[in-house]
Amino acid sequence: MLDIITQSLNELKWNKTWTPYGRKSLNSATEGEVEPERRCFITGLIRDWSIREHNNYTASLRLSKPSKLIKHQMLMALAAMYIKEYDPSFAYTSIQFSKCVKTPKHRDRNNVGNSVIVAFGDYTGGGLIIYDEDGGEHTHDIYHKPLVFNANQYYHRTEDFVGTRYTITWFSVKDFN
Question: Which of 9, 13, 30, 139 could form a disulfide with 166 if both were Cys (CB 3.0 to 4.6 A apart)?
Answer without folding.
Answer: 9
